[in-house]
Amino acid sequence: MPDTRYDVLGIGNAIVDIIARCDDAFIKVHGLDKGHMHLVEAERSAMIYRDVGPAVETSGGSAANTVAGVGSLGGRGAYFGKVADDTFGKIFRHDITSLGIDFGSRPVAPGEPPTATSVILVTPDGERTMNTNLGACVLLDEADIDPTKVAAARITYMEGYLFDRPAAKRAFRLAAKHAHAAGRQVSLTLSDGFCVDRHRAEFLDMIKGSVDIVFANTAEINSLYQTTDFGEACRRMAADAPLAAVTRGAAGSLIIRGEERIEIAAEPIERVVDATGAGDLYAAGFLFGHARGAPLAISGRLASIAAAEAISHIGPRPAQNLAGLIASRGIRVPDRLNP
């Protein structure tokens, strides 16, 4: 087994999030599907940004948020993603490296698309509707996969949002190949129901052949197996993947391993402020615990705590140190490699 420098290495869309509050009427006026991610052209993104008013800009992207959460938990992280050498690209690079995350990906060449942005509209119920212009982030390819770093990560985590381009799919498969060759684990998040609709067959093929840990929510796992029977979807996932974690909102989450089912309660909070990043931070907690060899129930509890922290404030990144938060709950995470 090679030396371990990282608990989790994330691969995903490097995006600068632009977070703004709005009401349901704004969502309807702009013809958006509330609670989903929309891929938009630069002009439409700029129009929504202009119309919504004041906003907060921060580095984001699903896998980047997850790796940032791992860092906040006291873990060691790395990240592969593409940005341009522009203002937003510099914001992204500064933010993620300031968290102690190893981000050495080269920027795209001059003349290529700008750094990706996502205008995230947060309604009063805490639901988020994302409007994403992918820009440079879709240009990630096999050349961006550093096999030495993959081999040094206990778990390589990949986001489904990046799966639209053939080059990114090849990069995913190459990363999985390097990870397994080094005796490491590979994880995939389905990311969004629309991603599942677009890539169902390829997701299933990858889950059955290359993925050790799957993350999904109830809608995504049902869509993956084209059923409204959650139990049936879980049974089929258990047959396809060694391990899965399925989030169920206020009902908590379910860890699936073979015939084993572990129910994890949602961590109580006073109110949901912003659901942005809830799934990303759930994955951070679970992956950190699993990488360190914690029992599945403890990894699930860490996931629940991290997700609850994420939805208690505006923005997808932790507002307080997660390592301190779990210590205050009396939870101790072992520091050893999960076999």
Q: In brief, what are we looking at here?
A:
With 339 residues, the chain is of the alpha/beta class.
Overview of the molecule:
- The chain is α/β, with parallel strands linked by helices and 339 residues long.
- The chain has one domain (6-12, 61-104, 137-328): UDP-N-acetylmuramoyl-L-alanine:D-glutamate ligase (3-Layer(aba) Sandwich).
- The chain has 12 helices and 13 strands.
- It has helices spanning 24-29, 42-52, 62-72, 87-98, 147-151, 166-181, 193-210, 218-224, 230-240, 278-291, 296-310, 322-328; strands at residues 6-11, 15-21, 37-39, 56-60, 77-80, 116-122, 128-133, 153-159, 185-189, 213-217, 243-247, 253-257, 260-264.
- The strands form 2 sheets. Strands 5-1-8-9-10-11-12-13 form an 8-stranded mixed sheet, sandwiched between helices. The protein has a 5-stranded mixed sheet with strand order 3-7-6-2-4.
- A hairpin with a 5-residue loop joins β11 (243-247) and β12 (253-257).
- α10 packs antiparallel against α11.
- The longest helix has 18 residues, at 193-210.
